[in-house]
Amino acid sequence: MKNLRYIINNRKTKFYEILKEIALEENRSFKDIIKEYNQLLKESKFSNKNLNKIIKKFGYTKISRKFSLYGYKLNYKFSHYYNLEIFKKIPPQEVAIVTGFGPTNPPTAGTLASIFRAIELQKNTGVYTHITISEFGALNSRQRPLEELIQNSYKFISFIKELGFNQKNGEIRTHNDHDHARIFSLVASVLTTKDLLKNLEVTYNTYKRLNLLGNDFSRMVSRAYVISDILLPIIRDKKRGVIVPLGLEEHHHPYLARIVLERLKLKYKNLIRQDADVGALYNRIIPGLFPYFKMSKSIPQSSINLGDNVEELQKKIINCKKIDEEIILKMMSLVSDWDENKLKKAERAFNNLKKDYRSWVKFKFDYLNFFIKIKNIWENTKYPKNFNLHKEIFKK
User: Fold this and answer.
1) Confidence of residue 170 (pLDDT cuts 50, 70, 90)
2) Cα distance between residue 278 and residue 242, in whole Å
3) How many structural domains comprise the chain?
4) Would you say residue 116 lies in a domain?
5) Same domain as 72, residue 9
6) Using 50, 70 and 90 to split pLDDT, how confident is the model at 214?
7) Is there a single domain that holds both residue 238 and residue 108?
8) pLDDT score recorded for residue 333
9) Are residue 166 and residue 208 in the same domain, yes or no?
10) What's the domain range around 87?
């Protein structure tokens, strides 16, 4: 990627053509697009630099090909882990997997990857799995109408069940939950403002600039909600440990949960089991479409998502910008039901696309059809289109 001065002075660069195309698509001036690109470039470099610093500072371990969790090889779908060695000594029935999704918009490819990983972990490890659809968390962290968040929550829950989540060995809930409210009160009793301000999300600056965040206090409430999600199985169900699969850019959630857990152990010795612990498993990040750092549900132009119509999906996948071709390959690897043999063939076609672009396009059409199939599952999920907001919030 090049900087602003380079783009202005060298109009033959491929980035000039890409940004010119974006300006036409969005009906904005080229100068505005260049300024935004330059800002996003700075934020992206900052985010990538921060991730590398985070890995070194917190000692996150890169996953080797041989590393497994309860017999399930974690391989290329995860990048790093933290504090998982102790779980080799803990039987799976004493452990819970905890993850969650904000129902701000239809799932992006990145969100789909996380959903697929959670279902795979549940299936292959046999560990009881909690998935939280955080409508109240999203209400506080993002500026979205509550009615829309509740409606999307119903869709997310139905969608995840359709993808194969095993309800006999797990539970999907929202933040409108009495047990969660009880845990939240315990968490808030030991969590400090300093804890939260010292540990911000990697993409915080981009979201703040685009005015997508809630106010300062509401964001803190949202983050305390996530910590409560993580610790609920330990406190309510007396589990020995919790494993949190999530993106590395959100590493602060399990990190803060461990800090809170240690404080709760000291304050409530008869309530919290003293040998409890939290581990984290970091998904590989699917980068955002040029020029964004990651795919975000809150920034539609950054992502390929289930809310896109078929025409938009074809444009983003089949007729994508050259700079985004590798992102399509990563999506095939992390968000598909393709076996290892087909993925290797797709990778060979990608590596040879300059000489034989048709072969690569064939794989892209296969992937488009797969993504449309998942999109149809999302669109056919059952949810209440009309509901009484008061009754919905205070239902028993």
Assistant:
1) very high
2) 5
3) 2
4) yes
5) no
6) low
7) yes
8) 93
9) yes
10) 60-283
pLDDT band at 301 (very low <50, low <70, confident <90, very high): confident
Q: Does residue 283 contact residue 78 with C-beta atoms inside 8 Å?
A: yes
Q: Are residues 243 and 190 located together in one domain of the fold?
A: yes
CATH at residue 218: 3.40.50.620
Give pLDDT tens digits for 328-385. 999 999 999 999 999 999 999 999 999 999 999 999 999 999 999 999 999 999 888 8
**Residue 31: pLDDT over 50:** yes
pLDDT digits (tens, 9 = 90+) for 92-139: 999 999 999 999 999 999 899 999 999 999 999 999 999 999 999 999
In a domain, 151, yes or no: yes
- Helix/strand/coil (H/E/C) assignment for every residue in the chain: CCCHHHHHHCCCCHHHHHHHHHHHHHCCCHHHHHHHHHHHHHHHHHHHHHHHHHHHHHCCEECCCCCEECCEECHHHEEEEECCHHHHHCCHHHEEEEEEECCCCCCEHHHHHHHHHHHHHHHHHCCEEEEEECHHHHHHHECCCHHHHHHHHHHHHHHHHHCCCCHHHEEEEECCCHHHHHHHHHHHCCCCHHHHHHCCCCCHHHHHHCCCECCHHHHHHHHHHHHHHHHHHHHCCCCCEEEEEEEHHHCHHHHHHHHHHHHHHHHCCCCCCCCCEEEEEEECCCCCCCCCCCCECCEHHHCCECCCCHHHHHHHHCCCCHHHHHHHHHHHHHCCCCCHHHHHHHHHHHHCCCCCHHHHHHHHHHHHHHHHHHHHHHHCCCCCCCCCHHHHHCCC
Query: Do 25 and 45 fall into the same domain?
Result: yes
Residue 245 belongs to some domain of the structure: yes
Do 134 and 261 have their domain in common?
yes
Instruction: Check whether residue 46 and residue 114 sit in a common domain.
Output: no
Nearest to 280 by CA among 330, 234, 230: 230
